[in-house]
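Section 5: illustrative case.
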C-alpha cells in the first residue's frame, strides 16, 4: 500500500481528503506548515506527499527545496490553477499537479501513478504545463506572491477585478471586516499603499 503524507494548512480539508481516500492508501503523517512538513517527510519517509501550494513558512516550493533530492515523490493538490503556482512547484520537483475539484477515486489513481514514477496533471492543466514550458516567458517563482495565503490571494484577485468589499465578502462567504483584515495584510506584505496599487500589482503578474 502506498504510504502518503498529507500537507495542507487546513485541518478540515486534511480530514476530508483522508475520508475520501479511505483505505486505498496509508496516511503516515500530516503537516500544516513548511517546518512541520519537512520534519514529518524526513521522519516518515513516505512514497508520495500530497502537497498544498500555499503554506505558512514559504509555500510548497520551500518544502520541495528543503526535502529534495529524495526517494519521496510529490503531487501538488491545490485550489489554484494559476500559472505561477503550477510552474513553481513543477520546477521545484513535483511530479504532478491536481486541483481540489478532483474526486477521491481520481486522487487515489493519481497518487498511485505518481508513486510509480508517472507525471500526473489535471486534464485542463496538462496542455497548459506543456505550453508554459515551451514558451519563452515562463513565469518565474514569485517570492512576493508566495508569502500570501490562499485566502489573501483570492481577495487580491477580486480587488483587482474591481469588486467592492461587500461583493468580496458575499463571494467568499466571509464578513466585510474579514475582507478589510485580509486587504490590510496583503498591503503590508507587499508594501503597497492602496487598492489601486494592488490592482496594478496583480495585473502586472497576470493574476486578474
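Designed sequence:
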Amino acid at each position: 500500500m502506498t504510504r502518503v503524507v498529507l500537507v495542507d494548512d487546513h485541518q478540515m480539508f486534511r480530514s476530508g481528503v483522508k475520508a475520501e481516500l479511505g483505505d486505498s492508501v496509508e496516511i503516515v503523517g500530516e503537516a500544516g506548515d513548511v517546518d512541520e512538513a519537512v520534519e514529518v517527510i524526513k521522519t516518515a519517509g513516505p512514497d508520495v506527499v500530497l502537497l498544498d501550494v500555499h503554506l505558512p513558512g514559504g509555500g510548497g516550493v520551500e518544502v520541495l527545496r528543503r526535502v529534495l533530492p529524495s526517494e519521496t515523490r510529490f503531487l501538488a493538490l491545490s485550489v489554484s490553477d494559476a500559472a505561477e503556482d503550477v510552474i513553481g512547484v513543477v520546477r521545484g520537483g513535483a511530479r504532478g499537479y491536481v486541483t481540489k475539484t478532483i474526486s477521491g477515486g481520481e486522487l487515489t489513481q493519481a497518487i498511485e501513478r505518481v508513486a510509480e514514477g508517472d507525471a500526473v496533471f489535471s486534464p485542463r492543466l496538462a496542455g497548459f504545463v506543456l505550453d508554459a514550458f515551451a514558451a519563452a516567458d515562463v513565469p518565474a517563482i514569485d517570492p512576493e506572491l508566495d508569502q500570501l495565503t490562499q485566502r489573501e490571494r483570492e481577495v487580491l484577485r477580486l480587488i483587482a477585478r474591481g469588486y467592492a468589499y461587500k461583493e468580496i465578502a458575499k463571494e467568499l462567504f466571509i464578513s466585510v471586516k474579514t475582507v478589510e483584515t485580509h486587504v490590510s495584510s496583503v498591503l503590508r506584505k507587499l508594501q503597497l499603499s492602496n487598492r489601486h496599487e494592488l490592482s496594478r500589482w496583480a495585473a502586472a503578474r497576470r493574476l486578474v
